[in-house]
Write a structure and sequence with these properties.
By secondary structure, this protein is mainly β. The protein has a single domain, classed as Beta Barrel (Elongation Factor Tu (Ef-tu), domain 3). The chain contains two helices and eight strands. The strands form two sheets. The chain has a six-stranded antiparallel beta barrel with strand order 1-2-7-6-3-8. Strands 4-5 form a two-stranded antiparallel sheet. Strand 4 and strand 5 form a beta hairpin.
């Protein structure tokens, strides 16, 4: 592995790019046709991977949950680009302190239950993405890295 071979060598990080372009690895298929703020817990979706990615999911069926990164393309054309939102609680938060789709880069990240795998399709529950949404990446959910029992959230 390239990173192990170079671990003892000095490393000068190249200048990061000004922008990035990410091709989709697949698309979401479900019955949800327009964005909604809640009610995603029981939604079942299929992530239809592009054929060239089928080999990349070998062994994924051994995991109960996945992390899905997706692009909320409809938010790109939203008339509002708020810096803050006032939630139902009446509290105002910066957009990065919310789960709103009206983010500067329109990225969504969800932990989903993996229900099954068939060829290049993953059946999942709890993905908060509408039909046709572009999927950018999929990772296994690892409780030792991803679960934070001491995490805190603001009170409503």
């Amino acid at each position: 592995m390239w990173f192990r071979k170079r671990q003892s060598e000095p490393f000068d990080r190249p200048t990061p790019p000004e922008s990035v372009t990410l091709p989709p690895v697949g698309h979401v298929r479900n019955d949800v046709v327009k964005p909604r703020p809640q009610g995603w817990e029981k939604v079942e979706s299929t992530i239809a991977l592009l054929p060239e990615h089928e080999q990349r999911i070998i062994g994924i069926e051994a995991y109960s949950h996945l992390i899905v990164v997706f692009y909320m393309d409809l938010a790109e054309d939203a008339p509002e680009k708020p810096e803050t939102l006032t939630l139902r609680s009446g509290n105002t938060y910066g957009i990065f302190a919310t789960r709103s789709q009206l983010r500067p880069n329109h990225l969504g990240v969800s932990v989903v239950e993996l229900l099954g795998v068939s060829g290049a399709e993953l059946r999942v529950r709890g993905l908060d993405a509408i039909d046709g949404t572009v999927v950018l990446d999929i990772k296994p959910y690892l409780p030792e890295y991803d679960a934070r029992p001491d995490a805190r959230i603001p009170r409503a």
